[in-house]
Amino acid sequence: MSSIIAQFQRTRFAASSLAMTSGELRNRVLASLAELIRENTAKILQENQEDVDALAFDHPMRDRLLLTQERLDALASSVLSVMQLPDPAGQVLSNKTLPNGLELTKITVPLGVVGVIFESRPNVTIDVAALCIRSGNAVVLRGGSDAFHTNTILVHLIHLALEKHGFSTDLVYLMPTDRAHVTTLLTAVNYIDVIIPRGSEALIQRVRKESLVPTIETGAGVCHTYVAASADLAMAVNIVVNAKVSRPSVCNSLDTIVVHQSIAAEFLRLVASPMQSYSVKIYADDAAFETLAQVSYPYLEKAVESDFGREFLDFACSIKVVNDMPKAIEHISNYSSRHSEAIVSSDEAEAKFFLSTVDAAAVYWNASTRFTDGGEFGLGAEIGISTQKLHARGPFALEKLVTEKWIGIGQGQIR
Amino acid sequence: MSSIIAQFQRTRFAASSLAMTSGELRNRVLASLAELIRENTAKILQENQEDVDALAFDHPMRDRLLLTQERLDALASSVLSVMQLPDPAGQVLSNKTLPNGLELTKITVPLGVVGVIFESRPNVTIDVAALCIRSGNAVVLRGGSDAFHTNTILVHLIHLALEKHGFSTDLVYLMPTDRAHVTTLLTAVNYIDVIIPRGSEALIQRVRKESLVPTIETGAGVCHTYVAASADLAMAVNIVVNAKVSRPSVCNSLDTIVVHQSIAAEFLRLVASPMQSYSVKIYADDAAFETLAQVSYPYLEKAVESDFGREFLDFACSIKVVNDMPKAIEHISNYSSRHSEAIVSSDEAEAKFFLSTVDAAAVYWNASTRFTDGGEFGLGAEIGISTQKLHARGPFALEKLVTEKWIGIGQGQIR
After folding, report:
1. Is there a contact between B214 and A388 if contact means CB atoms under 8 Å apart?
2. Percentage of residues in chain B with pLDDT exceeding 70?
3. How many CB atoms sit inside 10 A of residue B258's CB?
4. Domain B223-371 carries which CATH code?
5. Across residues B96-113, what is the average pLDDT?
6. Residue B228 and residue B271: Cα distance in Å, rounded?
7. Model confidence over B280-328: pLDDT tens digits?
8. What residues does A194 pair with on adjacent strands?
């Protein structure tokens, strides 16, 4: 047996005892962890600097990897805020007595051992560990090699917090970063209950293909906003610009504007100026291209097929002009990643048809797609945004880190 | 594009319109289907006979494949009973207004397109189609080749019922039975939302390995009953014998008796007689072997390692004697498939420790594991018993054929 499998086994064993502890006791671990992060700020920043220095000066990952005093403070606060959320385990979902007298109760229980594969961002290490400890789950973390020093010291602090309250350090296991070990994790059906990949599309594809363990995909967001004929155009400009520029690097940012042809020219002329001020590159279909060329939009290109269904993650978007709403819905259905979709409209019937027909984790009427987020939804820190339909859809937060268990209590009932 | 993918596309399209129909209208399809099954009994039996005749006279699948007047009546009644269950879609799970005025509602919606891969039993065709139509889902069925004639006429009747009420027949698609097409189904991520394998361990392993579509495993049941030192032995005998012999071919039947050493000899002498009357073969560990040999139990063999964790699906079981409850729990944890586990005990503290520590979909105190069943639990017909932890655990019935959708209604909110 490899040493990794042996550690998985210890983690599985530790998980079975964790489920028996009180939520109050587990919260004390979180309080200590927040304190330890604050006390060890200088040391964490030093280790983090080693990771950051190893990257080229202009490497795009540098900012995602970098920790600062401010980011560490936010991380410690995030741990404390997880303590405030209700314990998702131990809830009674149903309770009934069958005609034969068997008392049948369905309760929520921790999932067991959660595996998380993630890339550079070291805040994931702390967020995920805090959510798992709060909900009574053990966790196996497989972080990126470029965050090695940072993750090592963070997990060391997590272990100190666990030990301080008599918990086993096996509950949070940081795996070695060798790529081959990812396969060990993905095939460990006896030890891992669920795997959550957080990162690039390539990572998610690999997990989908190789994993024998059930998976929650927290996938890419190809998000559309449809500007209907009846839209309040000032509102539409506001929503579309916000959805694009407020944080282009995240999954709930806008990728494609779909616009009704009857108001397309007017809308595009209005949206051009704010988009230009953020230097947003626009990949426009023929109709949109014509209008934007007329106003001499400077960052303009003709869209090709692959510009639809493309997740830009940058100051860029594509535009599609449609003849009617069915065409808008068809376009979204063909290119959406089923994350977040929006309509701007003043027509209630039209909006409600859109909301019920478009198949996505979150659908909006007269609001920005940027709201799809555990914190915004009042669910607390999230493990990711699920774009698949089983178990958790949309923000995958503390409340979904549980499964169900049926408990039957009888007096000798047989069938 | 293959003709199968083209059909998947039509099924996906039909599913999007089904979600908009009323539960009442969909129920009319079920009423017509039950009627059509009753009206066409002779014809169904004739087609079924073709399938049955193709199997050797002593083929073990014959009985599972065979339909009778009585079984068809039960099938029609089962369709009618699905009509009585509440529509799982359209339920409001949460509703709140965020501080910025955005009204956020989480509702249940149909999964979309459900793929089911199953083997001989033709009742699955009707049960699954009825559950999917009731809940607003389209379904792709991939049945076994040995049920080809039966499944073809049953799906023909389903299509007649759909057409009668103006629904598209694309909603229920019976795939060709070539084995290669299973891969087409398992990789159709753009068209199928969830795949449920129903059948042998080999089928489930293949699906787990090959599927790119999220899967609900309805796996094997390796079920234990632990007879504790404090057990009422008459009750224990009753429960254990029922769990073994009432229907050995199903997943919730008993596979291994774990018994405390202090009462093992007495319990085994008591259980030997009823077990003998059902000719139950017993694979006993050394301690149990000694006792059962003393009473000349006729169907006795020494257990080897592989007799633990073995799903017998027959009049056979294994027995393990343990020194204390931790050892019992350890044995169950090592060999259980996490389906259904029971303890017989008169000690409440001991029983509650067992119920909370043993990790399984269903755990019982002083009752038979045979109760793990959608019908018994009052959930109606089931798609299978899920032995994994995501989305549905235990009986996977109508109520779980939905996912969630977040709907945000604003007045121009941005972030």
Report:
1. yes
2. 100
3. 27
4. 3.40.309.10
5. 97
6. 15
7. 999 999 999 999 999 999 999 999 999 999 999 999 999 999 999 999 9
8. A114
Q: Are A355 and B107 in contact (CB under 8 A)?
A: no
Distances (CA, A) of B196 to A210, A359, B207, B234: 19, 21, 9, 40
| Residues of chain A positioned with their CB less than 8 A from the CB of B238 | 412, 414
- Is there a contact between A232 and B16 if contact means CB atoms under 8 Å apart? no
ipTM over 0.90: yes
The closest alpha carbon to B177, from B125, B113, B138, belongs to B125
A330 has a chain B CB within 8 A of its CB: no
Cα separation, A395 vs A377, in Å, equals 8
Q: Which of A134, A129, A196 is nearest to A169 (CA)?
A: A129
Domain ranges of chain A: 3-217+388-409, 223-371
* A296 Cβ under 8 Å from any chain B Cβ: no
| First-to-last C-alpha distance (Å) of chain A | 42
Question: Measuring CA to CA, how many Å separate A382 from each of A79, A373, B219?
Answer: 12, 8, 30
CATH superfamily of A3-217+388-409: Aldehyde Dehydrogenase; Chain A, domain 1 (3.40.605.10)
Pairing of strands B402-413, B103-110: antiparallel
Judged by CB atoms within 8 Å, which residues 347-366 of A form the interface with B? 355-357, 359-366
Q: Which long-range contacts (CB under 8 A, 24 or more apart) does B298-304 make?
A: none
Residue-level length of chain A: 415
Burial B8-37, CB ≥16 within 10 A → b, else e? bebbbbbbbebbeeeeeebbbbbebbbbbb
